[in-house]
Amino acid sequence: MNLTHLETFKTVAELSSFSKAADVLGVSKGLVSRHIRALESELACRLFFRTTRSVVLTEPGKELFGAAQQIDAISHKAAQSINMLTQDGYGYIRFTAPDALGPIIAETALPAFSKGNPNIHIELDFTTDIKDVEFGESDVALRSQKALPDNLVARDIGALKDILVCSPSLFEKHEIRSSSDLLTAPCLKSSFDTSWNNWTLHSGDGQSIQLTAKGQYSSSSYEGLIALAAGGLGVACIPLALVEKNLSDGSLIRVLPDWFASQHQLHLVYTHQRFYPKKLREFIDAVVAWRNANSIWFIT
User: Fold this and answer.
1) 50: Cβ–Cβ under 8 A, 6 or more apart, which residues?
2) Whole-number Å distance between alpha carbons of 294 and 300
3) CA 187 remoteness from chain centre
């Protein structure tokens, strides 16, 4: 059914006049008549009783008029919804981040953004899959992938600083005073990405060493590695951001405090757009502000 013809029909029905409908629509009375005839031909029924004095809906016309009003209401609601989504200060932000860092950002960066944007809905997804951004399932992602599709923008926010930690009890058994002591100490391994077990350590005075973590315990998550380290089962190489609380409560201590490593160069990833919505720009700025406020977690 032609929606232009339907709109013409609805206007005639509302005004009970072909002439008045033509004036409102800014078309000729003849075009209005042709639209109505086309509808009546398509539906194989008469829609109006017409006399020289009145235009009255037939029973099928009344049925179509009710449907036309519903279609108009749905169209109006859809237009309002789209307007709300594209207006500044309204709509959704879908954010994805690694499950280790995501909760930290949610706790420390999002409250300030939410205060300034009370009508923005935030959907969080803590995962490491990049396709959710590339195919429009998320608006912005925090990622550490080295290679990204061409249709994505990757804004560099720096490399996470990894530090060596262990439990106080393990340190008493295996005093680690120099980098060479790591060769005989039990180390915890990543089973999520075995390349993370090749530690490249840098010192504050510019030295660098490489070693492969060896030990009998491994985990696919940082949470698991932290738990193993706190249980006294090995030395772990963990982003500082994830173990600050453990260092504060004494469940972990830093080993070789002059040395650090880095496995994750972080980027804020989002699709190329000609015009970036204000809500998206402000959300990205909020995450960058979070990074700057916690610069100690990053290698500068």
Assistant:
1) 18, 56
2) 12
3) 35
For residue 184, with 0-12 CB atoms within 10 Å meaning exposed, 13-18 middle and 19 or more buried, which class applies? exposed
Backbone angles phi, psi at 258, to 5 degrees: -85, 0
Q: CA 32, 35, 39: angle at the middle one, nearest 5?
A: 140
The closest of 157, 156, 100, 115 to 294, measured between CA atoms, is 157
CA distance 229 to 250: 12
Give the distance between the most distant pair of CA atoms in the chain. Answer: 106
d(Cα 27, Cα 211) in Å, to the nearest integer? Answer: 81
**β-strands 218-219, 189-190 pairing:** parallel
Q: Residue 239, exposed/middle/buried by CB under 10 A (0-12, 13-18, 19+)?
A: buried
CA distance 123 to 180: 46
185-240 tens-digit pLDDT: 999 999 999 999 999 999 988 899 999 999 999 999 999 999 999 999 999 999 99
Rounded distance between C-alpha atoms, residue 21 and residue 137, angstroms: 44
Measured CA to CA, the distance from residue 141 to residue 284 in angstroms comes to 10
What is the Cα Rg of the chain in Å?
32
This prediction's pTM: 0.68
